[in-house]
Amino acid sequence: MSAIDDHLDDSRLHIVAAPGAGKTTLGLEVFRRLERRALVLSPTRVIRDQWLLRLKDFVPEEADLSLDNLPDWASNDIRNIQPLTSITYQALHSKLPGKDQKVESEVDIANGAADESIEEAPIDEDAGLEADELDSFVALLMQHDVQLLILDEAHHLRAEWWRAIDAVCNKIPNMVLVALTATPPYDSENLEWQRYQELCGPIDEEISVPELVKAETLCAHQDYIWTVSLDSKESERVLEYDERVSKLCQSLFDDERFRTIVRQHPWVKIDDVKVDSAEVEGAETQSVEAEDVEDSENMLANADDLFKNPELAVAILSYLKAIEDKLPVSLCRALDLGHEEIPELGRQQWQRLVEAIIFTDSFKLEKEATDYVAELKRLLRSTELLHKRELSLVRSRRLDRSISLSVSKIKACLDIHLLENKHRGEFLRQVILTDYIRDEALKSTVDAGEVNLGCWPVYQALCKGSAVPEQIGMLSGRLSILHESRLEAFLQYVTAEKFKITPLTYLEGYVQLSGPLNQLTTAFTALLTAGEIRVLVGTRSLLGEGWDAPCVNSLILASVVGSFMLTNQMRGRAIRLDKNIEHKVSSIWHLLAIDSKSPSGMRDYGELRKRFNTFVGLSEQGATIESGFERLNIDEHWEMLKRDREYDYVTTINTRMRENYGNRESLAGRWKKALTLDSNARVLPSVFTPSLPDIRFYHVKETYKALLIEMTKLLGGVIAMSIYNSRNQGLDFVLMVIGMVCIGTVIYKLPQTIAIIKTFLKHLPVDGSLKQIGYALADALCESGMIKTERELMTVNTVENFDGTVVVSLSGGTFYESSLFADCMAEILGPIDNPRYMLVREGELHGQARDDFHAVPVRFAVKKELAQLFSESWRRYVSPTELIYTRTKEGKQRLLKARMRAFSSVFENKVRREDRWQT
């Protein structure tokens, strides 16, 4: 609060704070301090009303404040502007003066068909305001002298809305803009981020979840996963899909016509020199005639298609290797791949190969082959492996969706509920969030059988299986249900005449409630807080963002959405501190459905890992706070499952989670221990990478070599003269002369000597070279203006883990600057993809000379000047290097070889982004 005045010097206040940090209270405090008429814009009615209800913290305790009894200086209607007016963004479309009612009332994300959508944003980001709407809006603000605009959940305003709001600020020069969000769009494209910053201004304050736990503003919490096996029907679909793919691949493998097509590809036919697969030890070692080498170089120099699609070339080589055919030397040489580096023929290679044959003209098919391809397409469509232009040999979108919404996850919700209710009892305050309602069965007399994951199926399962069925409620925009024994309590919080109560025929003793959604939400929240209900099942579009219920201590994310913004918003529902509950500890459950017998049945695992990359939490491995699935310390079990498909992964993991959950009473102490760092500790975006020892000695070796050459030249002449005169002076004199010359040479070359010592010391530690790369990157980012914080105020951090891996980060700047550094660092250390510029340095691998490649980060590759700036910074800190522009003929050759490293396990570099609590 004390820094508000300083941050408002540019008429912008941009606050990023985790859910539960009190952004609403902060916004109201700004309103109170500035004493300006304010308009608050929110994405939903629920959040809109929370601003008005939070006024109870600013009015006398005896005031009976409610939505129906607001102070005369507060309003939730744009047609009734008061000193504090709270409305939704959508209201600007529907209720601006002089406008037709284009939208029925205030279109809320949580009603009707919108509730069935899995779109991330609860408002139309591309709609903005039309010109006449904008003029009406500006006129309205000026008429009522509104000089404070508060944007709640400002991360939604990334497209057209920023222009409208920015125009308002330009037309009303004394307007102050306050932007509040828990999840700024750090993962958006560069242009979107620039627009967001132009609207909201630079981030003034950032408050992370660990900081708030440390300040006892958020509660201690832990993430758990609950694993289930796919049900029999889903497993049959997985097995049937795998069998279709396997049969197709085997059929193509045995088909001589398919082999002929592959062998006729121009890359295979470029020369007549082919060797047996077993004889290929690497294109570099092949014994071929000079004209064959020339053919190979010609192919590489002219084959733009090879540069654009090297994955196809690798797929062709994998196929030829698998059928034990002869490998084309030219292609192996062009790709810089040897026999061991060519991957085994798998689904990924089949996908590339078949796609190229049926969708492109790269194979230059003859008439007979064209007929065969048409036949192949018909076969693929008949087996449902081809839909329009989407080939499904690696993965099936429909199958993946079926797994993510598996009916087995409904049982998982019940199992978790039973576990939590057993341990927490009457203190359980559980929320289950889904993406869909799935209430079709209530609207139809036709039995559709089992349905996928959704509010209604989960609610049914809980009501039938829970020990406290009467204490379970369901809330969504279209369907809300409560046990009839809770009706009296419910009616205390709503205007009874506005509600319709209908007995539910599908569940005896339960009723459906129909009425204003904002009142429904308020009432259900109050019932959950009071303990009238212990469990609330709802949609994440209604309750997943902005909903304020500090009592929640158990959250089940039965949602398939894994984006940075939504995941953090949903988790925020459970980690708020409840002043009425001492030592609150929350559990957050993630659902995983697998079929361990098939790789296709384990897609959900990959999606779950991605979700864990979007937030930080307490590690089960030690006293650390970090992002990533690794912190759960269960990766070893996944590796065991991959080795042995009979391994009982489901039982093992759930047993492990039960044990971890049973230790939840120790969570507060473990959080406290992990947070006990320097007072300046914070969450920093970091890069986790294996150490790169090859870099460390290159710079030293080159500098030492240069000095040694100079010393050899100087000493050579002196030693020759001394030996010539040794007949007269003796051996002692010769040795003395040589020693003096050596000392003199070192003094004469003192700058180079000092450089050697300094360079050696810089690169000597295991993490030394990574730190030098970090220095180079940080300097380049500052010199280019991408980072505004002064370089002297920032520190490049490297932390070596017990297993030799290293974590690199940049501290001292803003969160965005640290995130930008980490993104660029990941590009530098990761496998080469298709950069515009790259750095090439000579090095050694296993005693053999080999070029080493590093991508110039995208931010620097947009302009030649920026790429050169980065290259110069690299030379200062890391090693001599060559900057290559990859869009020239020669550059394409070098890039092609660099990209091939990604296909070889020899060069596998497991670099990943993660956020960590550190100084």
Structure characterization notes:
Keywords: ATP-binding, Helicase, Hydrolase, Nucleotide-binding. Residues 4-202 form the Helicase ATP-binding domain. GO terms for molecular function: ATP binding; DNA binding; helicase activity; hydrolase activity. The structure is a single chain. The chain is of the alpha/beta class. It has 5 domains: 4-214, 3-Layer(aba) Sandwich (Rossmann fold); 220-229 and 407-599, Rossmann fold, CATH 3.40.50.300; 234-401, no CATH class; 693-760, no CATH class; 766-918, no CATH class. 45% of the residues lie in helices and 17% in strands. The chain is built from 37 helices and 29 strands. A 7-stranded parallel beta sheet has the order 3-4-2-5-6-1-7, sandwiched between helices. Helix 6 (161-171) links the parallel strand 5 (146-152) and strand 6 (176-181). Helix 6 (161-171) runs parallel beside helix 7 and helix 33 (768-784) packs antiparallel against helix 36. The radius of gyration is 33 Å and the shape is globular. The two termini are 24 Å apart.
